[in-house]
Structure prediction request, 136 residues.
Amino acid sequence: MSENQPDNQASNGASRTACVLLIDDSATIRRSAETMLANEGFKVVTAENGFEALSKIARHNPDVIFVDIMMPRLDGYQTTAIIKNNANYRDTPVIMLTSKDGLFDKARGRVVGSDLYLTKPFTRDELMSAIQQHGH
Prediction:
């Protein structure tokens, strides 16, 4: 009928910019990751904590979520569990960020539904690799 076709016909995501949500209580981490991802063409939404992130998830429907483990009030494990327990977001990849590289932390991340585990400080290549592993 018209030249304007709905976005949902391009299932590979080529017609829309992938949205990445980054949740971290460190302004430095948020800023550096936001710069790295924006330079790669992603729409980047940031949140300072799990509570703020939950409303932003509903508003922006991100394709990938990066969440810091160590945050006040609602930590990364709790935030991930809430996301994964919601049927609308269960399939959204959640990648945990941490400065700790322990086996226990990785196992606990898997239990709550984390798809991947990235140790801080991370590089642009590590961020991009994490996103590409999850189909974006």
